[in-house]
Design goal:
The chain has 512 residues and is an alpha+beta fold. It is 13% helix and 31% strand. The protein has 6 helices and 29 strands. The protein has a 5-stranded mixed sheet, with no helix packed on it. It has a 4-stranded antiparallel sheet with strand order 2-3-4-5, with no helix packed on it. The longest helix has 20 residues. The radius of gyration is 41 Å and the shape is elongated.
């Protein structure tokens, strides 16, 4: 029975040998020789005790089941993974180069805290001081294109606009074909006011202008029927004037030099006060009701009133006013002279924006695109003829105009009532303050009109806005009876920033 089973098994073994997929010209005996050679290499003891396998002839081609690719045709130079520098003269120099390369590679890929690979590896500071990062100074430094594909299509000598660095942050993960120029870091703006002043009786009235900052670093604030001066240099508060119980302050505006302050009253008077001596210089009449907005050029003071008129007062002449500008059909709530003192922009509760020149009593430009009151007006100090205006609750838009061509440039929906606009003197940016419904302050970058930051903190509409003489700080006021100071814009490049200890000290104080 066993002989029969053995006989049945033997043919199967013979068939299994014939099923081996061997290369052409290679016999099964040759495969056994290769296996015995592998065993002899891995375990010489077994080879010595085993049968003696014959050594193959060196001239005969050997086959195996391993695939070893040929790298002779690979273009490794295109990936900057080969070092084509001349070989060094000694093994010690080679080992030192390998150590330097390994340490630098580990430092760049794993960060600056990665320890050395070996005790003899030099530290990172010594490498930097030795100039290892400069591939033109040391053949041991890795290529600047480490882990980046090399572009063969770039013409030799063409300028490179990409950021070349060994840091992993230099890898370009952007869309193919997109510009890979280094991204400019966005300026960080503190979202917390560095100083808060209590301002009791600061009115919550959209049509008034009760805060202005002088060139002498003094803040004028209209509170009820009084005007108070707060020195940003010394934090000293001075009461400038009191209009009495039958009147109230509706607007304040400093001259360009910051010596005299114009005050508009609810009774329709315009008063000029000497801020140094705290003495009234003169009173000018002509309006029948409250004066809610004032604007200076070099020698002319313009006043806008609820009586729908604009009066130009030349302070050098004894007359109350030298010209009257009629055109608005409702209260005039916004006035701004251009920086060259040639054009006056006016906004009214009739949703109209007018531009006047010095010689005409009729507007030279009329813009009617706003659908709410136009109080927020600002001229750009960076581009001649660029005027910005903002609409009230029913409009919510900031619009840009070219007064030279009488054309509309752009419109941005802010999502809220626009109360004030002001351009930065140091950079091409502007700030807007808003009312319903978020009471926020937004810094915009022009001309893209991207939001640089949004500041919150006021619990009422941010109706008042002014800027420090150095152009870095803005002050905002609201019906919550607070004045908040924000560091928003960078310092000027041509002058030193005004940083007095009293102005920059933290805390909350009272304006009166």
């Amino acid at each position: 029975m066993e002989s029969v089973e053995n006989a049945a098994v033997q043919p199967d073994r013979s068939r299994s040998r014939t099923r081996l997929n061997l290369p052409a010209g290679m016999a099964a005996e040759r495969l056994r020789v290769e296996i015995s050679r592998a065993v002899s290499v891995l375990n010489p003891a077994v080879a010595g005790g085993g049968g003696g396998g014959s050594t193959p002839s060196p001239t005969r081609m050997s086959y195996s089941d391993r695939f070893i690719p040929s790298r002779s045709s690979s273009n490794l130079a295109g990936f900057a993974l080969l070092d084509n520098s001349p070989s060094l003269g000694s093994d010690a120099s080679k080992e030192e180069g390998v150590a330097v390369y390994s340490m630098l590679l580990r430092s760049e890929l794993l960060g600056g805290d990665a320890g050395p690979l070996s005790p003899g590896t030099p530290d990172k500071n010594s490498l930097v001081s030795a100039g290892v990062r400069d591939s033109t100074k040391s053949p041991l430094s890795p290529s600047r294109n480490l882990l980046r594909f090399k572009s063969d299509s770039r013409a030799a000598g063409a300028p490179c606009h990409k950021s070349e660095s060994l840091s992993p942050g230099a890898l370009d993960f952007g869309t193919t074909g997109a510009s890979s120029s280094p991204v400019k870091l966005q300026r960080k703006v503190s979202r917390v006011p560095f100083k808060v002043l209590d301002a009791p009786a600061l009115q919550d009235d959209f049509y008034l202008n009760l805060v202005d900052w002088s060139a002498h670093n003094v803040l004028a604030v209209g509170l009820g029927n009084c005007v108070y001066l707060w020195s940003a240099s010394t934090s000293k508060v001075t009461k400038l004037c009191d209009l009495g119980h039958d009147d109230s302050v509706c607007s304040v505006a400093w001259t360009h030099r910051g010596t005299y302050l114009a005050v508009g009253s609810n009774a329709g008077e315009v008063q000029i006060w000497d801020a140094i001596r705290c003495k009234k210089v003169r009173t000018m009449e002509g309006h029948r009701t409250r004066v809610g907005t004032l604007a200076w050029n070099s020698v002319t003071l313009s006043s806008g009133s609820r009586d729908r008129n604009i009066l130009n007062h030349d302070v050098r002449v004894p007359e109350d006013y030298t010209s009257k500008l009629c055109g608005h059909k409702s209260e005039v709530c916004g006035l701004k002279w251009s920086f060259d003192d040639r054009e006056l922009a006016s906004g009214g509760n009739d949703n109209q924006l007018f531009v006047w020149n010095q010689l005409s009593t009729q507007p030279v430009c009329k813009f009617s695109e706003h659908t709410a009151a136009v109080k927020a007006i600002a001229w750009s100090p960076h581009q001649h003829g660029l005027l910005t205006s903002g609409g009230g609750t029913a409009d919510r838009c900031i619009r840009f105009w070219n007064t030279s061509t009488n054309s509309h440039i752009n419109c941005v929906d802010t999502g809220g009532q626009v109360c004030n606009l002001m351009w930065s003197k140091n950079v091409n940016e502007l700030v807007s303050t808003h009312g319903y419904s978020q009471n926020q302050i937004i810094v915009w970058r022009y001309p893209t009109m991207t939001k640089l930051t949004t500041l919150t903190g006021h619990t009422y509409r941010v109706l008042y806005l002014s800027m420090s003489p150095d152009g870095q700080t803005i002050v905002t006021g609201a019906g919550d009876e607070t004045l908040r100071f924000w560091n928003v814009f960078p310092s000027p490049k041509s002058q030193n920033a005004v940083r007095d200890s009293g102005m920059w000290s933290l805390g909350r104080t009272h304006i009166r």
